[in-house]
Amino acid sequence: MNGKRLGQLPISREELLTELEHTLTEGDFAPGDRLPSERALSETYGVSRPVVREVIQRLRERGLLHVAPGSGTYLREPSALDWARPLDAVSRRSGTTIRQLVEARVMLEEKAARLAAENATDDDFDKLSRALDAFNSPGGIIDRARADIAFHALIARASHNPVLEMMFGSIAPLAFEVMLRSLDDKDVMREGAPLHEDALQALKARDGEQAAALIGKHIRLAATLFGDDYEKSVERVARSKVQALFGPNASLEEVVADALS
Predict the structure, then answer these.
(1) Cα(142)–Cα(110) distance, rounded to whole angstroms?
(2) Cα(195)–Cα(189) distance, rounded to whole angstroms?
(3) Cβ distance 149 to 259 under 8 Å?
(4) In 3-state terms, what secondary structure has residue 53?
(5) Do 188 and 182 form a contact (C-beta atoms < 8 A)?
(6) 151 with 135: CB under 8 angstroms?
(7) Whole-angstrom Cα distance, residue 261 to residue 187?
(8) Across residues 146-168, what is the average pLDDT?
(9) Measured distance CA(160)–CA(238) in Å, rounded
(10) pTM above 0.85, yes or no
C-alpha cells in the first residue's frame, strides 16, 4: 500500500474490497502486520472513510483481519477456516441437516481424538485445558460456545494432521451455530459438560479409544435435544438463535475465526 493510486479516479466498494484482499494475501503484508489507518486508506484509494470502514469490516468477517481496540487492524494468521470457507458455503447451499452434521462430526472427531492421543504435545494439552477452563467459567452462551468450538478444534489440531484440521474447519461454523442452541439446554449442559473433562483426561492418558468414545458420546448427546428438527437444515434450525444473539445480518465467520486462532 504505497499510495500508487493517489491522483487516480476513485474506485467502487467492490473494487476496493478486491484490491485490498489481493494486496493482503498476495502483496508485501505478513501475518501480524498492521494496516494503514482509515484516513490513510481513504486518501490512497480516493474513497470516503465510511467506505473504508465497511470494506475492513467485510475483510474481518472473512477472517483476514483482526482489530485490536486502541491499537489498530492487523493481518490475521491463516487458519484451517480460511481453507475451508468455500466448503462451508457449499454445505449451506446444499441444506446440510443436523443429522448429517452430527454424522460427519462423529466420524471426523473420533478419528482426530485417536490421533491426538498419540500425537498431542504438552503445549496441545495446555491449550485444551485453557479452553476447558474458559468453557467452565461463568459467562454467557456466546462465550461458552466459543470455548466449546475451540476445544473441539484444538483436538483436531492436536492430531497433527493438517487435513483433519482443515476438514474440521469446514464444518466449524455450522457446528458453532448448533452449539449456540444446544448449550442453552440445561440437560445437555448437565450431562454433556463433564464429558469434556473426561475426554481430556483420556487424551492425556494416551487412551485413544476412550477419548474417541467420549467425544462421540458428547456429540450425539447434544443432538438428542433437536427432536423433529434433527432432519432439518442447520441454517433453518439455528438461524433464529443466531439472529437473536448477533442480530439479523449476523456473520459468524469472525467469531469462529477468533475461536479457532
Answers:
(1) 25
(2) 10
(3) yes
(4) helix
(5) yes
(6) yes
(7) 30
(8) 94
(9) 31
(10) no
Distance in angstroms (rounded) separating the CA atoms of residues 233 and 20: 34
- Amino acid 202: pLDDT: 98
Q: Which of 117-126, 150-159, 216-225, 246-255 has the lowest mean pLDDT?
A: 246-255
DSSP 224: G
Q: Which one-letter amino acid corresponds to residue 73?
A: T
- Domains in the chain, ordered, with CATH? 13-75 (1.10.10.10), 80-260 (1.20.120.530)
Q: Looking at the chain, list the stretches that DSSP marks H as alpha helix, in order from N- to C-terminal side.
A: 13-26, 38-45, 49-61, 80-93, 98-119, 122-136, 141-158, 162-182, 186-204, 208-223, 234-246, 253-260
At 149, the pLDDT band (50, 70, 90 cuts) reads very high
The β-bridge partners of 103 are none
Q: Could you report the per-residue pLDDT of 36-45, keeping only the tens digit for each?
A: 999 999 988 8
Amino acid letter at 168?
F
How far is 145 from 248, CA to CA, in rounded Å?
Answer: 19
CA–CA dist 139, 171 (Å, integer): 25
State pLDDT tens for residues 174-223: 899 889 888 888 887 888 889 999 999 999 999 999 999 999 999 998 77
The C-alpha cell at 208 is: 485413544
User: CB of 165 within 8 A of CB of 222?
Assistant: no
Helix (H, G, I), strand (E, B) or coil at 194: helix
3-state secondary structure of 9: coil
Enter the C-alpha cell of residue 126. 495446555
Q: Looking at the predicted structure, is the pLDDT value of residue 6 above 60? A: no
Of 62-71, 144-153, 168-177, highest mean pLDDT: 144-153
CB-side neighbour CA atoms (13 Å) of 231: 1
Contacts of 33 (CB under 8 A, 6+ apart): 74, 75
